Predict the structure of Cytochrome d ubiquinol oxidase subunit II.
Amino acid sequence: MELTTVWFIIVGVFLIGYFVLDGFDFGVGMSLPFLGRDDTDRRLVINTIGPVWDLNETWLIVAGAALFAAFPEWYATMFSGFYLALLLILVALILRGVSFEYRHQGKGRRWTRWFDQFIFWGSVLPPFLWGVAFANLVQGLPIARLENGGWIYEGTLLTLLNPYALLGGLTLLLVSFAHGLVFISLKTAGEMRARARALATRVGIGGIVVGAGFLAWTLVQHRENERFGLIAACAAVAALALVAAWAANLAGREGWAFTGNAIGIAAALLTVFSALFPYLMYSSSDAAASMTIAGAASSQKTLELMTWVAAGTMPLVLAYQAWTYWVFRKRLTRESIPAAAH
């Protein structure tokens, strides 16, 4: 297997890890106004991800760095085309991260309410905009080749906000919301656990319906793709996993429900990457201008060096993250929240 293909897979793995892990972070943040009846409830919800949310977000940093080093042309073209959307994502992530650290400084109810709003909107915007971005990659964008061999995005922000992309954004938003609610029910006990499960059941239905529509639309768009069988198989796994997760949550099996949602998100992204390969960006204006993996990759020496670095560091990162989740595996209750924490 060529190193360009290997690094396409590695970048895909990093992005899948990010959306599976930070996906439930987003869902927890979105649940704040729905499950937080008082300050103790809201602190309890936030504490479910307190030890891990920043660790989860490092997957995005690693994915961005790998994308920049392995496929600089993809990085440059995508980030210039999605500039405003990515800027909104960055601002939302910054406000969300700051709010986790500062909301409980005890400076009054108005202070706390402002940071709760930042957490909510900072959890809503990123998954929606990420969904819009990836849907546009699968559908195709108006990109053109430059004389120097690079690519340029020729559309506008409104070009990105098409029906298919908006459906993709809504899909990731609802699935992340349900994923986060299941995580809350997995990490809490008592009334909070019951309320999170009940809300996850309702949100999960919406995620399944909208997600099925998005996956079906994707299959229709790529029905002539030579890898249609693989694309359809990944889409089927995603759909079945989300349905199984919903059923497991309904039965009170939060661990299986969380696993099902994780598999559903991963399979949905595999559907996207399978539809893209061997391209990185389709050109909707000129098929000959589409960006291929080989055409946008770094030099062979660069990819070889990156492969050795990744082989040495990734096992350590995975081991540390697994250890962190193991240490903070216990369920939380309202009684575990000290009065001074909220």
In short: Strands lie at 143-145, 151-153, 279-281, 291-292. The chain is about 75% helix and 5% strand. The chain has one domain: 3-139+150-341. The CA atoms of residues 70 and 306 lie 8 Å apart.
